[in-house]
Amino acid sequence: MKYKKTAFYLFLLVSFNTSADGVDLNYDEAMEVASKKEIIGTLSKVTVDVSGICKLAINEDNNNSHDVNWDCKTSAGVLMYQIALSAFESHIRVNLGISGDDNLASIMMTDH
Description:
Blueprint: H1 2-15, H2 27-34, E1 37-48, E2 53-59, E3 65-71, H3 75-90, E4 94-98, E5 104-109
Antiparallel strand pairs: 1-2, 1-4, 2-3, 4-5
């Protein structure tokens, strides 16, 4: 039920989003330009609230945990949410690029 509620909120955000922006999928460029720190691990939580803020929790191999936020009201934010949710449900490790203010700058599924 929680997944359906989250998916519904995301659907509403996308439906009323009038300022769609482009999505740059060049990983090396995105990580270099947008992120201050890189974290590799598995996701333990992925959520979105009614105000359009997405949140995730990631666990590194050394048992460090990080909470990361980003804006889901843009097309890039929605794409990052879809990638995060897919990785969470499939238990696939991810590589996150984090900006200086602990916001998600980039996300990529990884096999290491």
